[in-house]
Amino acid sequence: MDFPVGCSDDWQRLDEIRRLVRDTLCAHPAELQNAAAMTASELVENAMKYGEPLPQRDGGRLTVSADDSTITITVENAAAAGERIATLERSIERIHAAKAPEELYLARLQEFGEDSEASGQLGLLRIAFEGRFDIRCAYSEPVLTMTAKRVIS
Question: Which of 37, 38, 62, 65 could form a disulfide with 21 if both were Cys (CB 3.0 to 4.6 A apart)?
Answer without folding.
Answer: 37
